[in-house]
Amino acid sequence: MANPSKSVPPDTDDICAWVEYLGGDAEQFRRRFGGRQIYIPHSISTSHPLVEVLGAEVAFRLCEELTGITGYVPVQQNRVPARRLLVLMLTWAGFGLIRIAEIGEMSVRHVSGIRDMFRRDGLLPPASARNSSNIER
């Protein structure tokens, strides 16, 4: 089953984007296959490495969608996903959790988690240093 938060399939042959779209763990996929070319066959057995990493449902769907594709799997994700970047930009612009969630079509909890990640990475000031009334804007 496709990831419900992503209603449009990736417009690319990026295998990792497809794994994420289909509901698989793209990070785990990168850890296992990163740094090499992989071929997506027409059909696979339940003992195939794709099934081991992604689970049967996602692996079989990946084969349906990308049959015959050979693609490079990057070692690590080299881009900040657009939603995370949106949260960062809107936070610096002074928007609060609820408004960012509305704009980005995300839950407040998800926005909060992204902001916490950026705080840990030093891209946002600590929460205690910000005005707590910011939440409702």
Walk me through this protein's architecture:
The protein has helices spanning 15-21, 26-33, 49-54, 56-66, 82-92, 97-104, 108-120, and strands spanning 36-39, 70-73. It is mainly alpha-helical and 137 residues long. The protein folds into two domains: 15-73, no CATH class; 82-136, no CATH class. It starts with 14 loop residues before the first helix and ends in a 17-residue tail after the last helix. The model is unreliable at 132-137 (pLDDT under 50).
Give the helices and strands, then pairings.
Elements (H helix, E strand, L loop, with lengths): L14 H7 L4 H8 L2 E4 L9 H6 L1 H11 L3 E4 L8 H11 L4 H8 L3 H13 L17
Antiparallel strand pairs: 1-2
Short description:
By secondary structure, the protein is mainly alpha-helical. The protein has helices at residues 15-21, 26-33, 49-54, 56-66, 82-92, 97-104, 108-120, and strands at residues 36-39, 70-73. 47% of the residues lie in helices and 6% in strands.
